[in-house]
Amino acid sequence: MFVEHLSPYTYVQSIAKATVSELQKIIKEGITENEIAYKAEEIMRNQGIHRFWYHGIGALVHVGKRTIISESGKDYKPSDTIVGRNDIVTIDLSPEINTYWGDYARTLVVIEGNVVEEDVLANTKNEAALAFSHGIDTEKELHNVFIDFVRPDMTFEEVYLYMNEVIQQLGYINLDFSGNLGHTIECNKDHRRYFESGNRMKLSEASLFTFEPHIKHRNGEYGFKRENIYYFRNGELLVL
Asked: Is 73 exposed, middle or buried (0-12, 13-18, 19+ CB in 10 A)?
C-alpha cells in the first residue's frame, strides 16, 4: 500500500464524514432535498473543498421514496421533496482536493421530526423506526460480510457475484442503475473500474476502492445506501 499517499485521501474523506455529522443536526422535518444538497456542499466548501469529482455534484441527496432512485450525476437535480416527520434521507458525497477523492454515503433516518442515531434507532418505540432500522442493519451486515470475504487475490467480478447473491439472500434488491456495487478510486472518474460482471481485475491491483450497495427490500418502498473507501495493508482490509 502506498502509505505515503494515504494521508491526503484520509483528509478528504474525513471532511465527507464530518459533513454527514453536521447534516445530522440540520436535517429536520420540513427541510427540502434541495436545501440539504445545498447545505452539504456549503459545509464542504467551508472546509476547503472547491471541487467535486462526480460530474461536479458534491452531494447526491434523495428524500423519502425518492431514495430508490439510482441515477448518474450527469442527470441529477435535487428536488423540492420535503422531509416528513418519519422519513429517510440518502446522502452521497464526492469531495476532491488536488485529484484526491473522498467518497462517502450514509442513510439518515428522521423520526418524529429529527435525525435519530443508528445505534439507538432499533430501540426507538416507533413503527417507522423499526422498518427503517432493518434497512440500516442490512447495510451494516453487507459491509461486515464484505470485510470478512474479500482477499487481495480475488477479482472484482468474484466479489460482485458473491455480494450480489448475499443481497438477494437477505431479501433485498441491488438498485444501482448500472448494477455495480462500488469502484476503484482514481484521478479521473472515467478511469474507474467496478465491482461488476466481467471485471477480472484483481483487488490487489487497486490502491483504494469503494463498496457502496444501494438496496431496497424486495417488498419495500425505500432505498438505503452505505459507502466506505477500503484498502489493503499487509493483506488486511481496512476502512479509510
From this structure: middle
Let me know how long the chain is. 240
Instruction: Please give the single-letter amino acid code of residue 61.
Output: V
- Region 169-185: mean pLDDT is 95
Domain count, the chain: 1
3-state SS track over the chain: CCHHHHHHHHHHHHHHHHHHHHHHHHCECCCEHHHHHHHHHHHHHHCCCCEECCCCCCEEEEEHHHHHCCCCCCCCCCCCCECCCCEEEEEEECEEECCEECCEEEEEEEECCEEECHHHHCCCCCHHHHHHHHHHHHHHHHHHHHHHHCCCCCEHHHHHHHHHHHHHHCCEEECCCCCCCCEECCCCHHHCCECCCCCCCEHHHCCCEEECCEEEECCCCCCEECEEEEEEECCEEEEC
Three cell numbers, residue 5: 499517499
Cell of 167: 443481497
Contact of 93 with 20, CB cutoff 8 Å: yes
What mean pLDDT, rounded, does the chain reach? Answer: 95
Predicted structure pTM score? 0.95
In the predicted model, is pLDDT for residue 123 greater than 90?
no
d(CA 173, CA 196): 15
Question: Residue 176: which of 157, 194, 190 has the closest Cα?
Answer: 194
Structural domain harbouring 230: 3-239
| CATH code, domain with 119 | 3.90.230.10
